[in-house]
């Protein structure tokens, strides 16, 4: 009997030990810094883990045996190791080398089909977690970050607005985890700054017109993909404290930034919870002058709260919920003192600000996502329900009779179902992606005092779609898709704004229902046999009911049925190639974008109206990266875009009746370059250069003034610096310097507006110093 008790004791002890078996470790780059994003997989099993912010991973309850563990991270070589698990925990660490060719292995998810970047027949730019951290360490404004890193994207203007920041000359659709942030029914230029970069894991920029997410993607889409729950421990945390300010005229320019993040995994449950507070001081130019507070980023409080919760029902089914709140409002002691365009800049001086604080009062985003592998047969499902609620208030403007402030209010609710079914026959393999989008978008632009400017527009959109993605003859990747837009918009009767007493100038407009139906199509082909030359061609269409609100608010007819409210359908033709030569990669692309109707804004008698003439836009982009050593990398890019209005609608945009599109649409040529070094294991240093070329396409009036958007842009260059040092295992310090050489310069928007009020200098030399603790 005693021997039986001993045998049972050893039996239960062996069970306990087997449950304690695990594989865990850390993942670092060749520069010595921990990788903060990536995936660790146990091959030939369903086991997957995300790398934590401390570069850690863990697999618990591993049975004894021999396994292959693989690590993938954006831009790094994939590393696979063999490990044998016995009767105890196993530590398995990884060091990954940066690789240009590894960029082609990155999976792009924003196009509805999960595609390998090196095989998809479109132009895509991806910012990984490390690059987001580097650029936000210089300036956390997403508009600036994207300007410095994305070829083909227009320039930020150092304000809360993103007017002029088009993608390839057309409007871009901004998303957060696939939730639309843009308000194309009444574009207010506030969609870039709708979330803080501290909770973004990566950014995918898909260029060229696309209807993948419906209304508004004329020039492409930018998807902010938020951080996901990570393994490694039950409770982990990242604390960051920082200070910002100008180094010339430092007095009253000091600001602070604090963020706290918790993450972990317990059994089938995982989570990320984050909060951020950011207070900026007064922004100053290179001469130490206060930059105009007109829609400025100085003296601004920003808040961001973020939660993502996940539950693995089993190895094939997962439920995940996300919520993010972002708010930003300016409380300035300064008012704008207008300068003289082309002579003296507009600056900020002490004064009383009229009206209520401007800024985004709230931007709520939430979704619930259910994913199921092989929900029937070999078909995978992703179902997603979401909402967004957004409100932003603009500055006081005497343009309105008696003065006033406008605001944009937008509420969206949506439901998506996305199914992917693989197929294989006659040596041809691929997948079909199909499903539907259901979206309700209610947007309006009233004044703060209750007057109606752009009336409430209630849009309902049901769009079924299908996309095929397949390999042909081993070396050709082909994809094609079709989407059917079925849109209805309800507008109630409304009065346009009065321009004088007793409702003078107001027009009674009869509302009604607007219906839109359209098929949009895309197709692309890429040849992938040789890494050193992977060419592609593609055609895509975009559908947009853009700026309906602007058309309605300036209505001169008494019924909406008489207004020119036809949609913009864009045809995008593109050809390019990628080349990878071990330590070097290169990309080149040329595109042409046409539309029979445009949505170009022009100013007439002080009022902005939408010009509906045909448009033709073309351009090219070049980019290269070189990685000669693990401790040294460098790269550069150049992008050019040009566009014209076909004024006489004869199909030829080169005759005398045609005119260049203004610079609110067509950005000047842009060049970027960077050099990154890691002198020692714990230290990294990066210097970026961004150059704006000139654009001078328009003549002034007889009075010497320029129309809106037609002012000449002068060339200017900017150096930024970012450096990070790992003090110990849990502590690191980061320093970013914007405008390293304190150059006096103007952003393109300050020049192309052609007006006194917007003629403001850009930031002088600024610092961003932060200390992070990973526990």
Would you give an account of this structure?
- The structure is a single chain.
- With 775 residues, the chain is mostly beta strands.
- The chain starts with a helix and ends with a strand.
- The chain has five helices and 44 strands.
Q: Give the helix tally.
A: 5
The count of DSSP E runs of length 2 or more, i.e. the number of strands, is 44
Q: What value does the average pLDDT take?
A: 89
Largest sheet: 22 strands, antiparallel, barrel
Could you tell me how far the N terminus lies from the C terminus, measured between alpha carbons in angstroms? 50 Å
Question: Gist?
Answer:
This protein has 775 residues and is mostly beta strands. The protein is built from 5 helices and 44 strands.
């Amino acid at each position: 009997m005693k021997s039986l008790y001993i045998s049972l004791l050893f039996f239960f002890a062996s069970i306990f030990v087997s449950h304690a078996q695990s594989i865990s470790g850390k993942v670092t780059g060749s520069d010595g810094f921990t990788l903060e994003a990536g995936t660790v997989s146990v091959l030939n099993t369903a086991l997957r883990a995300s790398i934590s912010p401390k570069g850690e991973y863990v697999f618990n309850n591993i049975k004894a045996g021999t396994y292959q563990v693989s690590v993938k991270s954006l831009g790094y070589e994939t590393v696979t190791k063999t490990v044998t698990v016995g009767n105890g925990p196993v530590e398995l660490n990884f060091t990954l080398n940066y690789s240009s060719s590894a960029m082609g292995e990155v999976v792009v998810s924003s196009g509805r089909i999960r595609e390998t970047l090196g095989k998809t027949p479109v132009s895509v730019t991806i910012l990984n977690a490390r690059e987001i951290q580097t650029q936000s360490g210089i300036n956390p404004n997403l508009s600036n970050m994207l300007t410095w890193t994305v070829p083909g994207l227009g320039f930020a203007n150092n304000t809360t607005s993103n007017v002029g920041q088009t993608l390839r000359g057309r409007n871009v659709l901004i998303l957060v985890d696939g939730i639309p942030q843009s308000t194309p029914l009444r574009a207010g230029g506030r969609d870039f700054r709708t979330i803080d970069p501290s909770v973004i894991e990566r950014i995918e920029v898909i260029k060229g017109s696309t209807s993948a997410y419906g209304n508004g993607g004329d020039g492409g889409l930018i998807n902010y993909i938020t951080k996901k729950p990570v393994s490694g421990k039950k409770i982990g945390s990242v604390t960051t404290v920082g200070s910002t300010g100008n180094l010339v005229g430092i007095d009253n320019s000091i600001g602070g930034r604090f963020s706290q993040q918790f993450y972990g995994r317990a059994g089938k449950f995982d989570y990320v919870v984050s909060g951020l507070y950011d207070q900026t001081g007064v922004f100053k130019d290179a001469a130490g002058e206060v930059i105009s507070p007109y829609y400025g980023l100085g003296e601004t409080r920003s808040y961001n709260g973020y939660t993502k919760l996940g539950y693995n029902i089993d190895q094939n089914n997962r439920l995940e919920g996300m919520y993010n709140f972002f708010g930003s409002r300016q409380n300035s002691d300064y008012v704008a003192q207008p300068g003289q365009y082309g002579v003296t800049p507009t600056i900020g001086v002490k004064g009383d600000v009229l009206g209520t604080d401007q800024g985004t009062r709230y931007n709520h985003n939430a979704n619930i996502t259910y994913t199921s592998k092989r929900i029937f047969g070999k078909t995978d499902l992703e179902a997603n329900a979401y909402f967004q609620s957004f409100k932003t208030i603009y500055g006081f403007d005497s343009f309105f009779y008696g003065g006033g402030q406008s605001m944009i209010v937008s509420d969206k609710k949506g439901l998506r179902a996305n199914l992917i079914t693989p197929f294989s026959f006659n040596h041809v393999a691929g997948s079909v992606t199909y499903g539907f989008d259901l979206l309700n978008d209610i947007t309006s632009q009233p004044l703060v005092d209750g007057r109606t400017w752009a009336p409430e527009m209630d849009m309902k959109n049901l769009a079924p779609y299908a996309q095929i993605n397949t390999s042909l003859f081993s070396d050709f990747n082909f994809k094609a898709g079709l989407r059917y837009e079925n849109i209805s918009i309800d507008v109630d009767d409304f009065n346009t704004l009065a321009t004088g007493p007793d409702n003078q100038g107001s027009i009674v407009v009869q509302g009604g229902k607007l219906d839109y139906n359209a098929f949009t199509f895309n197709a692309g082909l890429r040849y992938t046999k040789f890494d050193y030359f992977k060419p592609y061609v593609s055609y895509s269409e975009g559908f947009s009911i853009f700026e309906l609100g602007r058309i309605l608010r300036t209505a001169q007819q008494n019924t909406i049925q008489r207004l020119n409210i036809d949609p913009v359908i864009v045809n995008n033709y593109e050809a390019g190639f990628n080349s990878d030569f071990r330590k070097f990669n290169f990309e080149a692309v040329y595109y042409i974008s046409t539309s029979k109707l445009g949505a170009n804004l022009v100013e007439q008698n002080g009022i902005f109206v939408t010009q509906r003439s045909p448009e033709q836009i073309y351009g090219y982009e070049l980019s290269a990266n070189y990685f000669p050593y693990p401790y040294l990398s460098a790269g550069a890019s150049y992008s050019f875009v040009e566009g014209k209005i076909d004024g006489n609608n004869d199909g030829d945009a080169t005759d005398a009746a045609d005119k260049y599109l203004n610079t609110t649409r067509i950005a000047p040529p842009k060049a970027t370059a960077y050099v990154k070094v890691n002198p020692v294991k714990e230290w990294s240093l990066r210097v970026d250069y961004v150059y704006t070329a000139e654009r001078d396409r328009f003549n002034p009036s007889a009075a010497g003034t320029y129309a809106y958007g037609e002012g000449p842009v002068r060339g200017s260059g900017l150096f930024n610096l970012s450096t990070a040092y790992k003090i110990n295992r849990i502590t690191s310090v980061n320093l970013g310097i914007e405008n390293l050489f304190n150059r006096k310069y103007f952003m393109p928007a300050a020049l192309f507006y052609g007006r006194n009020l917007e003629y403001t200098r850009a930031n002088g030399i600024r610092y961003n110093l932060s200390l992070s603790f990973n526990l």
